[in-house]
Amino acid sequence: MQVIIITGSSDGIGAEMARQLARQYGAQLALVLAARNELLLQQVAAKCRASGAQTLVLKTDVSQQAECRALVAGTIEKFGRLDALINNAGRSAQALFAEVDDLSWYEELMRINFWGSLWCTHAALPHLKASKGKIVAVSSLAGLIGVPGRTAYSASKFAMGGFFESLRAELKESGVSVTVAYPGVVATQIRYRGYNAAGQAAGSSGLKEDHAMSVEQCASLILAGMQQGKREVVMSTKGKLGRWLKLLLPNLVDKIAMAALKKEVRPE
């Protein structure tokens, strides 16, 4: 039986990954579901159990190092092993830097998006080495290309990319794979709950989501990347193209980004 922790699994991409894994592996899988909303976690767990998987719900705030440690300790206490850690917990933000008065929420965003994944990974690493397991970090295309109006979010996701790229090299001989996923716009509620300039829930997306990737497709691509041991999963043709254009024509990328900010994504 394989044991997998998924942070941020109360809804959105994390919950969908849990459901897909449960359908795929059934009784051969134990899922540890972690997030702050225990009620939603229990609902996801019930669906996973209906597919035959074992579940353990652990209410966890990844912005607190002690809770990240407790998450891994609880997993080992219950199942005795760990085969994969999916660092999916995160929060979004949309704000022009010059319009932010109190920067404390920038620090909080870094604690959730970057430090949370680092802390969980640090606690899990000895067990993943023992099982020659897998680490997944769910970043964003904003972690590959700086996005105007998303300075805090981009910074946290760039930090994730740098950390896990470095860690991958360190773990090369250990048998532990490290996969970083870079989704684009996905049809979830993350942006509506993200910070605005005042550090409050934005309540709106600010992005045109007519062509957003479905949660189901995004989750499927991440899991396929994990199972195949891919280094990266860069989603959408636009994302892949933008990455190369940034290297070849950086000024053009800046112009496109600023035009998009004025037209579509200027924070409300």
Automatic annotation (TrEMBL):
GO terms for cellular component: membrane. It holds the Pfam family adh_short. One of its GO terms (molecular function) is oxidoreductase activity. Residues 2-189 form the Ketoreductase domain. Keywords: Oxidoreductase. Belongs to the short-chain dehydrogenases/reductases (SDR) family. PANTHER family: DEHYDROGENASE/REDUCTASE SDR FAMILY MEMBER 7B (PTHR44196), DEHYDROGENASE_REDUCTASE SDR FAMILY MEMBER 7B (PTHR44196:SF1). This is SDR family oxidoreductase. The lineage of its organism: Bacteria, Pseudomonadati, Pseudomonadota, Betaproteobacteria, Burkholderiales.
